[in-house]
Amino acid sequence: MSMRPLAPYAALAMGCLWLNCPGTTRADEWGAALADRLEIEVSTLEVAGRPAFLLLPPAEKRSTPQPWIMYAPALPDYPDEHEAWMHQQFVAAGVAVAGVDAGEAYGSPRGRAAMSALYDELVTKRGFAPKACLLGRSRGGLWVAAWAAENADKVAGIAGIYPVFDLRSYPGLEKAAPAYELTVEELQANLAAHNPIDKAAALAAARIPVRIIHGDIDEIVPLGANSAELAARYQAAGGADLVQVEFAAGQGHNFWSGFFQSQQLVDFAIERAKQAATPPPK
Q1: 3-state secondary structure 93-114
Q2: What Å distances lie between residue 125 and 67, 97, 119, 120, 252, CA to CA?
Q3: Cis geometry, peptide bond prior to residue 58 (ω within 30 degrees of 0)
Q4: Residue 113 phi/psi, 5° resolution?
Q5: CB atoms near residue 131 (< 10 Å)
Q6: Which domains does the chain have, with CATH numbers?
Q7: Tens digits of residue pLDDT in 147-200
């Protein structure tokens, strides 16, 4: 089996991990793995007791306020190596990327609280722009749509890679209910109050632009119940000009490189993040 050489920053961090260095935290271990997967320098922090990661642009490309993208789902295996090119484009363009591991939260209040804690840390203490572009991959769509609905004034745009918006389609109410600290019956009875797809009209009313790429034969996160439904609800709410869904012909829920190397999606996220960090003309 061949092994790809580690970037210097990853080798240093992984060396500490392998040697079980004193003071190594869960966030440190996650950061080391991310640095290896993404081939980018990774900073780690803890917010509200949860590990978080931060990808910063090179020093000469940083700015104040710092444009940024909030990513979900930030989990031990995500972002993964398939996203390396995408995140490299973000930091090369001067845009930071951050995410917090709230576990399998599925857009629940627990997950939204962790995202708010990350937002507060970066904006109030680290000079980040008061609006972020949100990026949700797969079930991360639940995270970003739910958080955006509660924090529309903090959102510059939403980008998605085969994102989930309807809890019924994935993970299903039986799996989602514990994350919401509800029984299945309670979640079903109050679904409109919790299901991110039911927030689409509010997102459109807040004029939050959306750009998505989604496979047209996705069986795990069906296009019709998620991205296409979000677009339809945007249109019904008068936001047809705000939503763009790129249909990936013949693609399912997979690692096709086109999902993660979509120049249009990357350009959208960069443009929205940078615009949010640009002071209005006087």
Answers
A1: CCCEEEEECCCCCCCCHHHHHH
A2: 14, 16, 10, 7, 41
A3: no
A4: -65, -40
A5: 24
A6: 25-276 (3.40.50.1820)
A7: 999 999 999 999 999 999 999 999 999 999 999 999 999 999 999 999 999 999
